[in-house]
TrEMBL record:
It comes from Fopius arisanus. One of its GO terms (molecular function) is nucleic acid binding. One of its GO terms (cellular component) is mitochondrial matrix. The keyword Cell cycle does not apply. The keyword Signal does not apply. PANTHER family: TRANSCRIPTION TERMINATION FACTOR, MITOCHONDRIAL. It comes from the Eukaryota. Keywords: Transit peptide. GO terms for biological process: termination of mitochondrial transcription. Belongs to the mTERF family. This is Uncharacterized protein mTTF.
């Protein structure tokens, strides 16, 4: 009993005054206590060397915060890292779900890699998606952009592409320089030819990454053709580079036909109003009802409108059945001649667009009605 009371007393004293307890405790117990204390904090007069960096020691909660992944954690990290609003961070995490799979240290490393490569913080804020990848892929992408000698602040939109695509781009750049030695890469070549900024081409290339894998000889050929022909394209898009020349020639032919039939300063509404002999408001209403008319060949549309107007159909008849302009003119003309040759009057415009079988049935019905009415009359 006395031993238990003594131990309890010593234990309480140990919590309040270590020095007194060390004087009263046996020597063996004191040494054991000093040994355990050294594991937690070194004495000021202790010269024992250690390799532990106490500034790097993290609590368990800090460890969890650094290694946890999820939507809320990625949003919070982007807000603190780039000084952006919560709504902006949420928008990017929804658009780029890979953010939700990156830990806080991974995002910090991505940011440090871009900053060390010379990317401005304002540029990263405008292109938050450049952080949406693993640190290894970000490092590979930065290395590829350096190989092609592209200013990284202008070429940062290309980081949306995969690391493999940029590696292939860097490998083909050496061949490109042999064809176009005045330009360091095809991005600068396209920017110079189309008279726009390098960053604009980079943004457009992200939507059509096949441009990076096309042979430079074909890019030069089609680009020179576009600039020489001036095919009436208000804004040249990069996908034209992938088009066969036959498609671009067809576009040039459409422009020539338009200038010949309609005129360079005449709108489609004005042309329809002129051919159908109606007011401009009626022609505009027709295009509003059937906007597919705008995609028709101007040669085909003009021939159909001239035929309908010559046979007595008005813009109001055309408004009730606008799909007639999409049919073959020969088929419509043949049905009209069959109907009028039967002597049963002027056919309704909706009758002319029936299927051939239904048109023949309708024609026979009207002929029978006409004969029966003649008998009774």
């Amino acid at each position: 009993m006395s031993r238990n009371l003594a131990r309890c007393l010593m234990r309480n004293l140990l919590k309040q005054n270590n020095y007194v307890c060390m004087r009263l405790l046996p020597q063996q117990l004191v040494k054991r206590y000093e040994h355990t204390k050294k594991n937690y904090a070194l004495m000021q007069n202790d010269n024992t060397e250690t390799t532990m960096d106490y500034q790097e020691v993290k609590t368990y909660r800090e460890f969890l915060n650094d290694n946890v992944i999820g939507h809320n954690y990625s949003v919070r990290t982007l807000m603190n890292l780039l000084d952006i609003r919560r709504e902006t961070a949420i928008k990017f995490t929804i658009k780029w779900p890979i953010f939700n799979k990156l830990t806080k240290p991974a995002l910090l490393k991505n940011y440090q890699l871009l900053r060390s490569a010379g990317v401005f913080k304002s540029t990263i804020r405008q292109n938050v998606e450049s952080l949406a990848d693993t640190p290894e892929n970000i490092q590979s992408k930065v290395k590829s952009l350096k190989k092609v000698k592209l200013e990284i602040n202008y070429g940062i939109p290309l980081l949306r592409l995969s690391a493999l695509e940029l590696m292939n781009f860097s490998s083909t750049t050496m061949k490109d320089r042999s064809l176009q030695p005045n330009y360091r890469n095809r991005i600068e070549y396209l920017a110079a030819k189309f008279n726009c900024h390098v960053s604009t081409i980079c943004v457009l290339v992200c939507t059509q990454p096949d441009i990076l894998s096309i042979k430079m000889a074909k890019i030069v050929e089609i680009t020179e053709f576009l600039l020489a022909q001036r095919a009436g394209i208000k804004e040249i898009k990069p996908w034209f580079i992938r088009c066969p020349i036959s498609i671009i020639e067809r576009r040039e032919e459409k422009k020539i036909n338009w200038n010949t039939i309609v005129g360079p300063d005449t709108t489609l509404e004005e042309h329809i109003a002129k051919v159908m002999d109606c007011d401009l408001h009626s022609a505009t209403s027709l295009l509003y009802r059937s906007p597919d008319i705008k995609s028709l060949s101007i040669v085909k549309l003009t021939k159909m409108l001239q035929f309908l107007h010559s046979t007595g159909y008005t813009i109001h008849d055309l408004y009730r059945a606008p799909t007639i302009v999409h049919r073959l003119e020969d088929s419509i003309r043949r049905n009209y001649e069959k109907w009028t040759a039967a002597g049963i009057g002027h056919p309704n415009i909706s009758t002319l667009i029936m299927s051939q079988k239904r048109f023949e049935e309708k024609l026979q019905e009207e002929i029978a009605k006409s004969k029966s009415s003649n008998i009774f009359s």
